[in-house]
Specification:
- The complex is a heterodimer of chains A (about 475) and B (about 475).
- In chain A, about 40% of the residues lie in helices and about 15% in strands.
- With about 475 residues, chain A is of the alpha/beta class.
- Chain A has an eleven-stranded mixed β-sheet with strand order 1-3-2-4-6-5-10-11-9-7-8, with helices on both faces.
- In chain A, a hairpin with a 5-residue loop joins strand 10 (about 435-440) and strand 11 (about 450-455).
- By secondary structure, chain B is α+β, with helices and mostly antiparallel strands.
- Chain B has three domains: about 5-185 and about 255-280, no CATH class; about 290-400, no CATH class; about 410-465, Orthogonal Bundle (Arc Repressor Mutant, subunit A).
- Chain B has helices spanning about 55-65, 165-180, 210-230, 275-285, 290-300, 305-310, 315-325, 330-350, 360-370, 375-390, 395-400, 410-420, 425-430, 435-450, 455-465; strands spanning about 5-15, 70, 75, 80, 90-95, 100-105, 115-125, 125-130, 140-145, 150-155, 190-195, 205-210, 240-245, 250-255, 265, 270-275.
- Chain B has a nine-stranded mixed β-sheet with strand order 2-6-7-10-1-11-12-13-14, covered by helices on one side. Chain B has a three-stranded antiparallel β-sheet with strand order 5-4-15, with no helix packed on it.
- The N and C termini of chain B lie far apart (about 70 Å).
- Classes of the chains: A alpha/beta (about 475), B alpha+beta (about 475).
């Protein structure tokens, strides 16, 4: 990767000549428009006036040489997954029910980005509330830049799609609950960096499953993804689950890595081949062994879907057309009728499925067998990872078992087949472990294939070093 | 059929913890204009996150300790999900599996011990306002100032055996909480009352405002259940509401199974870990509680158990007593004037402490006058009554203004002579050995002097002149 392609290079140049910021921004705004005209559907919400206002402010910073001028993201346009609140900008997590909700506050990650001189460009499309693997569970379905008949992956589909689509300097803030950063990064040939749970504040994130949600970075290269993670991470008193540790972009030490062989087995032959070939090349740098995570293979998806839907079904309870978002006529209706009417009409099919699943799994009589058991299983699965990390610095596997599927293929999947697509990404997410998806190569028909590395808690720097080695 | 009815009552009492800000956000707790103390967190806006107010935990721990509970060193908050327009997130953040405190005990003045099942912290929903009265308005307003206020819910075991005993428990509890100084001032506690008789199904009377109402609701419900049984009906488990205007309970909904709230641990909040040091210092900082104070007063001032309990059974009364002692007033006379006279006026006129203005300073002079024999009991009583519910002038001022102080200057001799000479029959009776006649004569003298004479002195003089 050339230095000229990095955000850091762009920022250094922008500090010398503000017209670089203006040109980059004008060009990327044009791209956003083109992508909309072509119905590529990466952009959920875009307010040109709002962007221009930010540019005008930034020009003042340039003249004054204030702290934003010295910011790590001075002049860098950033897209934000729709689920992350941006003050005054419609933020609806890809759901019709939140149409018209304009948050009164910026998410902490947005504050951090703004303080470093970034420009908030647009909100990107996603599966409704993050419920999906292909960004198809929503109104506006993003199309893969490599092949428009295929999915970008999900749920942060718009984020990865636009990252791959743009020719300009740009960073994308994504969010992962069960793999929603790694999956679209893999399908779109980007780097997707998901931190340890708690390293990035969730304040301002419209929740999917609070004990799993992690905001992270999607970029064209590892250097940029790590830079964005450095900016948005750090302790936040507004999020009780926030950790003291922020991420600092520096080299991590890697000696021994292991391939998770159980995660390879269900993958397509082409995916196996490309990922294994890449790993072969890495033997120059690391000792490569094999490891088995039988508990994770067997129980991870089940535990994940129980916990995630339990939490999600309570999170979505508040969306009832009463205080924000969609409103209907209340005339002559009992509140129960009104709530049911709004929720029946405005939630998509997958949201309803997960509400029903989650509500069932926490009902008295079932919560011991499902919810509480899943919580205990989760601890065992984390322990299994921790055991492996006693021997290995990183664990490797394909990010997704297939290349980006075509939309007509996705339509044929049953919900269970759909959930099974998350086999490789869910375990690390359930365990709150940091992981990165980086491009390992391409299929015969030129579709990107991602390699995933999982690190121990708070060892994001190993992922940064690893991804750069893979890119080289 | 046995006449004896076995009554089983259990209570769930909700009280506001006295914090300055709400349980999970920094909004003020004392706003008066509707919807002026709310923010994205207590409004449940998507993206907002709750952050626990540590002060509420501190106060909750105090309550647990004072009720002799086991404090859980680690505890959690949970989501209790149900749909209701006053609930900004359609779930309440409360405690389920592991509350802050459990397995406690409260001793009633009768000596009976009532077990406490648990005490937990939770947030209050918003207030629904029916502009032209419940059931009459064709719209409802929501005031989110209340959304997120910190509540402590105290749950008893079903150990109470009559509405009166339930009231006794509530008074005892309120007194303990007053000693702790953990509650928000001038707020009413809400009580859910569970009652069953003769081992039958229980009914739950939800959300009764205040202790007097709770006692009334239980009394009504007890009578109602008895009547149902007498008429051969079976009482099914259900929820009722109490109408304070009619004094009756009415059925709200059938309740065949326990409500299913689908509890999960609130994943936005982390486990609260108090630590041994925290608990040790919380214990050490606990103020003297009514039981301990009563024991101390019995020992220190040789009070009867009754006096000590009455004095400590009311936090404000005890506080005035402490101040009087601090100001070197006689403890015995202070106790007497407070427990006999002051409490009598308050009870007689059904006055709350918040409705009267009573200060220890105003009692110092009165106690002194009594001690020096300068005021009769009757006039002291009159002074207290006037102070509390008359023209509210200070007792000493009242006494001197109305010339009710025992004075050395009046011609007591002349009065005594006058009474003797005008009551020949009583004099004769007395001389014939009727002691009551002496009291009669002394009473006349006291009346003549408007009680400003020393009763002792009057008796002495009468005896001397009649001997």
């Amino acid at each position: 990767m050339k230095r000229e392609e990095t955000i850091t290079f762009f920022v250094e140049e922008a500090r010398k000549d503000f017209s670089i910021v203006e040109k980059n921004l004008a060009s990327i705004m044009q791209e956003a428009k083109v992508s909309e005209v072509k119905k590529l559907n990466y952009i959920e919400e875009f307010d040109a006036q709002n962007v221009v206002r930010q540019l005008v402010e930034l020009k003042k910073s340039f003249a004054a040489k204030d702290s934003k001028y010295y910011g790590k993201l001075f002049g860098v346009p950033i897209t934000v997954k729709d689920a992350i609140c941006v003050r005054g900008l419609e933020s609806k997590a890809g759901s019709k029910i939140l149409k018209g909700y304009k948050p009164l506050f910026d998410a902490t990650v947005i504050e951090h980005a703004r303080n470093e001189g970034a420009i908030i460009l647009a909100k990107t499309t996603q599966d409704e509330f993050g419920f999906g693997t292909f960004a198809t569970n929503t109104i506006k379905v993003p199309k893969n830049p490599f092949d428009n008949s295929r999915s970008c992956g999900g749920s942060s589909g718009g984020a990865a799609g636009f990252t791959a689509f743009t020719k300009n300097y740009h960073l994308a803030i994504g969010e992962s609950t069960g793999g929603s950063i790694a999956c679209p990064a893999s399908f779109c040939g980007c780097v997707g960096l998901t931190p340890t749970y708690g390293v990035v504040s969730r304040f301002g994130l419209i929740d999917y499953a609070n004990s799993l949600d992690k905001i992270g970075a999607i970029a064209k290269n590892a250097e940029d993804a790590a830079l964005l993670l450095e900016v948005i991470s750090g302790y936040d008193e507004r999020d009780s689950t926030s950790l003291k540790n922020g991420f600092v972009k520096e080299e991590g030490e890697i000696k021994r890595v292991a391939i998770i062989k159980d995660f390879f087995e269900p993958c397509d032959e082409e995916v196996k081949k490309v990922v294994k070939k890449k790993i072969e090349e890495l033997k120059k740098f690391y000792a490569v062994e094999e490891v088995s995570l039988p508990l994770n293979v067997k129980y991870s998806l089940a535990a994940y879907y129980v916990i995630a839907t339990c939490e999600a079904s309570t999170n979505l309870a508040k969306l009832s057309g009463l205080r924000y978002g969609v409103q209907g006529s209340v005339e002559g209706k009992h509140f129960d009728e009104y709530f049911s009417e709004i929720r029946s009409k405005e939630f998509g099919a997958e949201a309803k499925r997960r509400i029903i699943l989650g509500t069932f799994a926490r009902m008295s009589g079932y919560r011991d067998a499902y919810y509480l058991k899943a919580m205990r299983v989760r601890t065992k699965l984390i322990n299994e990872f921790n055991e492996a990390f006693k021997k290995y610095d990183l664990l490797l596997c394909p990010t997704m078992p297939t290349v980006a599927p075509r939309f007509d293929e996705i339509e044929k999947l049953t919900p269970m087949q759909n959930f099974a697509m998350d086999l490789c990404t869910v375990p690390a997410n359930l365990a709150g472990l940091p992981h990165v998806s980086v491009n390992a190569g391409f299929s015969k028909n030129n579709l990107p294939i991602g390699l995933m590395a999982i690190a121990p808690h708070l060892e994001e720097k190993r992922l940064y070093s690893f991804a750069r080695v893979v890119e080289a | 059929m046995s006449e004896e009815t076995k009554v089983i009552i259990g209570l769930e009492i909700h009280a506001y913890l006295g914090t300055e800000s709400k349980l999970f956000c920094s909004c003020a707790t004392n706003a008066t204009m509707p919807n002026t103390a709310c923010c994205p967190i207590c409004l449940g806006h998507p993206g907002s996150k709750p952050v626990l107010n540590e002060k509420a935990v501190e106060l909750g721990v105090k309550v647990g300790l004072a009720l002799n509970c086991t404090i859980n060193e680690d505890f959690f908050f949970s989501r209790k999900t149900y749909f209701y327009p006053d609930m900004s997130m359609n779930y309440q953040i409360t405690q389920y599996e592991v509350p802050v405190a459990e397995k406690g005990m409260v001793t009633l003045p009768s000596g009976k011990k009532i077990r406490i099942r648990r005490a937990h912290i939770e947030w209050d929903p918003a207030a629904l306002v029916h502009p032209s009265g419940m059931g009459k308005s064709n719209y409802v307003l929501i005031d989110y100032n209340r959304s997120g206020l910190p509540l402590i819910e105290i749950v008893t075991e079903p150990d109470l055996s009559s509405p009166a005993e339930a009231r006794e428990f509530m008074n005892t509890l309120e007194n303990i909480l007053s000693y702790l100084n953990v509650l928000r001032p001038n707020t009413t506690m809400k009580v859910d009352c569970n009652i069953s008789i003769n081992g039958g199904n229980r009914t739950e009377i939800k959300n009764v405002s205040g202790y007097a109402a709770a006692e009334k609701a239980l009394t009504f419900e007890l009578a109602r259940q008895k009547l149902e049984l007498k008429n051969g009906k079976i009482i099914h488990q259900h929820t009722r509401a109490f109408n304070a205007d009619t004094g009756m309970t009415v059925e709200l909904r059938k309740k065949e199974t326990e409500d299913d709230y689908g509890y999960i641990f609130d994943p936005d909040l982390v486990k609260v870990s108090l630590g041994k040091d925290y608990l040790a210092s919380a214990k050490a900082e606990l103020p003297e509680l009514p039981e301990a104070k009563a024991q101390r007063l019995m020992k220190e001032f040789n009070f009867s158990e009754y006096d000590a309990r009455v004095l400590c059974g009311d936090f404000n009364l005890g506080k005035i007593f402490d101040k009087l002692v601090e100001k070197k007033a006689s403890p015995q006379i202070s106790a007497r004037i407070l427990t006999r006279e002051l409490l009598a006026v308050l009870n007689h006129d059904a006055l709350l402490w918040s409705e009267v203005s009573v200060s220890a300073d105003d009692f110092v002079g009165l106690v002194e006058l009594i001690e020096k024999g300068k005021v009769s009991d009757k006039n002291a009583k009159a002074a207290v009554i006037n102070y509390v519910s008359g023209d509210k002038s200070k007792p000493v001022e009242f006494l001197s203004k109305n010339n009710l102080l025992i004075s050395e200057s009046i011609d007591l001799d002349a009065v005594v002579v006058k009474i003797i000479s005008s009551n020949e029959k009583a004099v004769t009776d007395y001389k014939a050995g009727n002691q009551k006649s002496l009291n009669f004569l002394s009473g006349l003298v006291m009346r003549e002097t408007k009680g400003t004479a020393s009763p002792q002195k009057v008796l002495e003089m009468l005896k001397k002149k009649l001997s």
